Amino acid sequence: MSYIVARGYGRSLVNHSYEVRIINTGTGTDTNKEFALDPVGFELTYESTEDALLVPGFMNSRCTVNTIWTSDEFATLDSLITNLGASQDGDYLIDVIRDGNSLWVGSILVEEFTVSEDSAARSVRFVATDAISMLRNVDYSDDGTAYTGYQTIETILKNIQEKWLLWDYFSEQYSGATTPRIAVLEDVYSEDDYIMAALVHPAGSNRNTLRRTRVHTNPWSKLNDAGDTEFISCYDLLHSLCLTYQFACIHTRALGILYRAA
After folding, report:
1. Residue 54 above 70 pLDDT?
2. How far apart, in whole angstroms, are the C-alpha atoms of residue 245 and residue 210?
């Protein structure tokens, strides 16, 4: 079972309490090791892959955490840095907790952490990503075997979420493997839209369109010139669905959320 390597605490100017956890997704026991957050604490940023915000497609997110480690925790830090250097994507995560609830989870980028040392304390900057872009390297297949027949769009989304790098951690920590980690919000409007805000907001759609719409799986794989099967990536397929159904995809609150952007 995954475990907490170390954690740090902070409080925002609007009195939200925060806990930033460094997680090892292997097997182990939670530790009581702590680091301090610098005055910035952490920075959670969202960037659209398109030229404009709030358009169909992906809204990628990353979190930068600025930590300070005292000499009492140097051994823990040295071990963490050594293990990070030998780790793979998804072995170490950042889990940001706000007021007791998970706000954001991401995979630490092993090539982007930096360490500043002095005799009394060490400053370490960690960068984590929502790992949605890493779906570029994941085939849309059934463990290497092509899917066959028809699938609903909802089934495709469920298959993709189970191939997401963060899926196992979410399943372990939050309500078990049967809980959807990709939520679909179809009736969304901006609070700045005074006309929509004044109207009665429609009831949820219950994803009826995604549950009824079926597509054949033939387009998701093909034979190349060498006779080997090539698969579409989960990233490209999810992006195509976002454009087709006018969804934007964003990761927050331990969920991948698809919401209407048009």
Report:
1. no
2. 9
Phi-psi region of 129 (alpha: psi -120 to 50; beta: other; left: phi over 0): beta
Model pLDDT, residue 92: 96
Q: Does 39 share its domain with 105? A: yes
- In this structure, are 124 and 187 located in the same domain? no
Residues 174 and 220 in one domain: yes
Model pTM score: 0.83
HSE, side-chain direction, 13 A CA sphere, residue 75: 2
Which DSSP symbol is given to 200? P
Sign of CA dihedral 142, 146, 151, 157: positive
The whole-angstrom separation of Cα 177 and Cα 171 is 4
- Which of 78, 98, 130 lies at the terminal end of a domain, its last residue? 130
Q: What is the count of structural domains for the chain?
A: 2
Pairing of strands 3-11, 214-216: unpaired
Q: Where are the alpha helices (DSSP H) in the chain?
A: 74-85, 153-161, 167-173, 194-198, 208-212, 234-245
User: How far separated are the first and last CA of the chain, in Å rounded?
Assistant: 41
Question: Do residues 69 and 144 both lie within one domain?
Answer: no
Structural tokens at position 216 = 């054949």
Question: At a CB cut-off of 8 Å and minimum separation 6, what does 33 contact?
Answer: 5, 6, 7, 73, 76
Residues in the chain, overall count:
262
Looking up tokens 């997401």, which residue turns up? Answer: 164
